[in-house]
Specification:
Layout lengths: L2 H14 L2 H8 L3 H15 L4 E3 L4 E3 L1 H25 L7 E7 L1 H6 L1 H11 L3 E7 L6 H4 L3 E6 L8 E14 L1 H7 L5 H4 L6 E2 L5 E6 L4 E5 L5 E2 L2 H9 L5 E4 H10 L3 E3 L3 E2 L2 E8 L7 H19 L4
Parallel strand pairs: 3-4, 3-5, 7-10
Antiparallel strand pairs: 1-2, 5-14, 6-11, 6-12, 6-14, 8-9, 8-13
């Protein structure tokens, strides 16, 4: 038995959730994958999976062995890549899970520069605002925009912190006027983003706080739909500054109550395991940290 091949087969079974999909991923057959698993369990002397005719689950020993497999295989792949490639040119397919704000609204800000700097990295992007399972999804890393990160088994690195700002389209301001105070804002349609709850908490530069309730006519659970609605002149909305900075610079959106913000959001890079990062993952992480640092330096009020 080729133990490394068997470990790769076992990892693929867990991550794809299917023997058939694991075989497709490895370019082999269902029978071969099943045989490798059986040989691996025999050699280890433990059952790795509890199986029935329809599905399977990892045993406690199987879950621990999977984590060890990931660590060992990733270290082997990283070592091979360091020997066979120029360390200044990380390579391979980088599978990323990104929120829509980064994968769509911010895409034009960061993608061209990354693709030019790292020509040997191929990106496979999946946009989803939910916290997806990085292991089962086969992702190398994810970026999420959130509050302070809760304790997690995931490895994490903070990329940036961004204030959330209120914005409106020029045609909206021309029609309805620009709110000058938080009291003025009460008479304007504040577009509701479902994840925000019933109201926004505003904080002024001097530390004064106020609460403004969302309007009831339009409520959205998609950041893309919220952006489209505010661009269409349907009201005032809150976004992280990093998401709308190009719109502000180009005049497509205007700041509302620029002396206030609606809290902060943290941009985190998340990894399936807190282990040594592969060159391609490290390259993307460092690029995005530098990108956001430059964005904040060039902030437009």
């Amino acid at each position: 038995m080729d133990q490394l091949s068997a470990m790769r087969a076992y990892r693929s079974i867990i991550e794809s959730g299917s023997f058939t999909k694991a075989a497709e991923r490895l370019g082999t057959t269902h029978t071969s994958v099943s045989r490798q698993l059986g040989q691996l369990e025999t050699q280890l002397g433990v059952r790795l999976l509890n199986r029935n005719s329809r599905n399977f689950t990892a045993t406690e020993a199987g879950a621990q062995y999977y984590r060890d497999c990931v660590d060992i295989l990733d270290r082997i792949d990283a070592a091979r890549q360091r020997l066979n490639t120029d360390p200044e040119l990380p390579s391979g397919v980088l599978r990323l899970s990104l929120p829509h704000a980064i994968g769509a609204l911010e895409l034009a800000q960061w993608l061209p520069g990354f693709m030019q700097r790292h020509p040997k990295i191929d990106l496979d992007l999946s946009c989803d605002d939910r916290m997806v399972d990085l292991v089962k999804g086969g992702f190398d890393m994810a970026i999420r925009i959130t509050g302070p990160l809760a304790d997690s088994s995931l490895g994490a690195r903070e990329l940036a912190v961004s204030e959330r700002v209120l914005v409106a389209a020029p045609q909206y301001v021309a029609h309805r006027g620009l709110p000058r105070t938080t009291d003025d804002l009460q008479s304007h349609p504040l577009l509701a983003y479902a994840a925000d709850g019933p109201a926004l908490q505003l904080t002024s530069n001097s530390g004064e706080e106020a609460e403004v309730k969302f309007g009831t006519r339009l409520r959205l659970d998609s950041i893309l739909a919220l952006h489209a609605a505010v661009m269409a002149g349907q009201g005032v909305a809150a976004f992280t500054f990093l998401t709308v900075r190009d719109d502000l610079a180009a005049g497509r959106l205007l700041r509302v109550l620029p002396q206030h913000h609606t809290g902060q959001r943290h941009y985190f890079a998340l990894y399936p395991h807190a282990r040594q990062l592969t060159p391609k993952v490290r390259a993307f992480t460092e690029y995005m940290r530098a990108h956001y640092a430059m964005a904040r330096q060039n902030r437009i009020e």
